[in-house]
Amino acid sequence: MNFNTFHILSNLEGWIEKISRRGYLKLTRESTMILPLAILISALALGPAAKPISDAGDSSGIRVVPVPRTPEPATSLLTIAVPEPGKMLNNPVWIQFRVEGYALGADSQFDRADEVANSKMGQTIHVVIDNYPYFPINEPAIDPFDEQGYYYYQSYKFEVPYQLDEGVHTIRIFPARSFGESLKGERVFHSTFFYLGSQDGGTPVDLSKPYLTYNEPSDQFYLQEGKPVLLDFFLTNCELSQDGYKVKVTIDGKSSRMVTSWQPYYIYGLKRGDHTVRLQLLDSQNKQVSGPFNDVERTFTVN
Description:
Layout: H1 3-21, H2 29-46, E1 63-66, E2 77-82, E3 87-89, E4 94-100, H3 112-115, E5 124-129, E6 135-137, E7 154-159, E8 167-176, E9 190-196, E10 211-216, E11 229-236, E12 246-251, E13 255-259, E14 265-268, E15 273-282, E16 295-302
Parallel strand pairs: 3-9
Antiparallel strand pairs: 1-14, 2-4, 4-7, 5-6, 5-8, 8-9, 10-11, 11-14, 12-13, 12-15, 15-16
Helix pairs in contact: 1-2
């Protein structure tokens, strides 16, 4: 039972007696004794309520504030061309994707670019292999024109910047603004799986079930004390609500909040040094949703 619940219950009998004397409520002496007990039992049965997201700080001085999504073009489209689902590959691993309606390398012309850390790489594609931290891509396009010479889409090819073990792997990609915020349209996120060297060593992740993709904060940006830090993630196959799926945000292992709306957030009050953010996808019963991507923690540095 939290402090507020205890305070209300401890004073409830006195309040009931006062309003009964004033004629607002007709109660017998027995009912004034039973009613607080009934309310107490109900409160204990409900258990502790989840702490909702708000701009109120806690004892650590950290605040998490929801901010609007940055407007995004409805025509943007992102697809993985290589590898095909279930394809067998070898190191080094090369990935190819196609993007429409989104200019990579350009600076995002929004006020948010001045409010939080902004990258000189401009707009990029964030690439997540398995559950490793993302790496950004804005390589030059390899085929910007079709056979008749008309511009139709941009295709990009890049090498995964680290060696992968044999077995099954998952790739997730999505566009991001120059300040790190992910686009959240229906056609801008793509995921698939492939094998490296052998089909032994694991079962592909079921990408048709609800899962979370951690985005920001990360060490890809130079984060400064005194400026808000962007908190951002991507959701697949589920929606957030007060009585449905939620995301639990834990900062530095002690400051926790529940997120019930899929949008960016600003984290205020982070001091200079290393910090952690942990994101957990929860179901309507506040239990963690099964899956390897639904409990992710990242470390980043505020300068």
